[in-house]
Amino acid sequence: MALDSNILSNRARDEKALADIENITFTVEDDVNQFKNLALSEIEQAKNAAIDEINNSGGGGTVIQNPIISDPSIQVAQSDEDSIRIDYTIALDNQEAQADLIYSLYVSDTNNLNGTIAEVEANGSLASQQQNVSSLIASNFNVEQIYYFCVIVEDLDGNKSRYNTISGSTTDLTAPTLTNNSISFTNIALWHRAVTPTEVSNWSSNPDIVLS
Fold first, then answer.
1. Residues of the domain holding 160
2. What CA–CA distance (Å, rounded) separates 133 from 105?
3. Which of 35, 85, 104, 105 has the highest CB neighbour number within 10 Å of its CB?
4. Residues forming beta bridges with residue 166, ordered by sequence position
5. 10 Å Cβ neighbour count for 166?
């Protein structure tokens, strides 16, 4: 009977130990699942917050950038006595149509338009500004004077890019005028003499010969 009692006691102990292990396993699994759900929830909240920030900024997930200038060079296309026309290649934009881009022509009589956009705007004078054009005209210049030009392109959101700087001069198109259109001759002597056949022959073959 003592043996049976020991067997029953050991079995009860083993069953209790097994139950304790199962309870511990369930507790650990519950903690892991709870931690996993909490982490997924925080990740989802962070993702939603990032999406909301992009939508509220108007970007729609697209990176905002300045207008794209494929060819930054500009040219003096035409000049006269008091105006100069500047030509350039129109820019592109990843948010707006080309027709919405605004072009500004800055001019200076000194070579100080080679810096940043802010420096160009500060050092130069705004000579012309138009939307959706590939040329701008600056006027009210002095004749035969050198000027410096720079073009800045801007989209409707205020993002800007600049072209290269170039120099150009106005052209004097006015013809000279005569203050006295009369011509006077003084100390002119007229003379003539007969020439020999040899002189005539020589002169016909070489008209630069001076007959004396």
1. 74-169
2. 11
3. 105
4. 149
5. 18
Tokens of 189: 């002597």
In a domain, 163, yes or no: yes
Q: Are residues 53 and 79 in the same domain?
A: no
Contacts 24+ apart (CB under 8 A), 2-6: none
Answer for the pair 68, 124: CB distance below 8 angstroms, yes or no: no
103 pLDDT higher than 90: yes
169 burial (CB, 10 Å; 0-12 / 13-18 / 19+) is middle
Closest CA to 83 of 133, 140, 124, 129: 140
Note the pLDDT tens digit of each residue in 137-154.
Answer: 999 999 989 999 999 999
Residue 187 belongs to some domain of the structure: no
Helix, strand, coil shares, percent, the chain, to 5:
35, 25, 40
pLDDT on residue 212? 59
Beta bridge partners, 108, equal 148
- Considering the domain boundaries, does residue 176 fall inside one? no
Tokens 């948010």, residue located: 95
CA–CA dist 167, 164 (Å, integer)? 10
Task: Return the closest-CA partner of residue 106 out of 94, 118, 92, 96.
Answer: 118
pTM of the model: 0.56
| CA-wise closest residue to 79 among 170, 174, 172, 175 | 170
DSSP 65-111: -PPB-S---EEEEEE-SSEEEEEE---B-SSS-GGG-EEEEEEESSS
Contact by Cβ (8 Å): 166, 75: yes
